[in-house]
Design goal:
six-stranded mixed sheet; STM4215-like; 119 residues; alpha+beta; DUF3168 domain-containing protein
Length: 119
């Protein structure tokens, strides 16, 4: 298993310091970003050793006015890590806040650190 969660967190801190891996509690500082590792699994074994790992992250952005600028900044920060955006959509939020959901994934060679993307 490869751990990229710390790198994702550091990248998101470049967008805002209001980043959490649980539901946001600080709504005064905008934007609020929640991140979650949704999947981290082996996709290839070589000689009974993990060779490649697949990781997928969910990023939720909340803002009272607009999530667009934060979404562009998040995309730039995570793309720099090799994560590929697979989804970007607005989510209806009953509180009236703007809420954008993004999903990113990549496949990493555990030994070399090379990044691959599925089709």
């Amino acid at each position: 298993m490869i751990n990229v969660k710390d790198e994702v967190y550091k990248a998101l801190l470049k967008v805002t310091d209001n980043v959490t891996d649980s539901y946001p509690k600080d709504w005064a500082k905008e934007p609020a970003i929640q991140y979650m590792e949704e999947d981290n699994k082996v996709v290839e074994y070589t000689d009974m050793k993990e060779q490649k790992a697949y990781v997928r992250y969910r990023i939720d952005i909340y803002h009272s006015m607009s999530t667009s600028a934060a979404a562009v900044a998040v995309d730039a920060a995570l793309s720099a890590l090799g994560l590929l955006r697979k989804l970007c959509q607005d989510v209806d939020d009953p509180t009236g806040r703007k809420h954008k959901l993004l999903r990113y994934d990549m496949i990493i060679d555990v030994e070399t650190g090379d990044v691959y993307h599925d089709a």
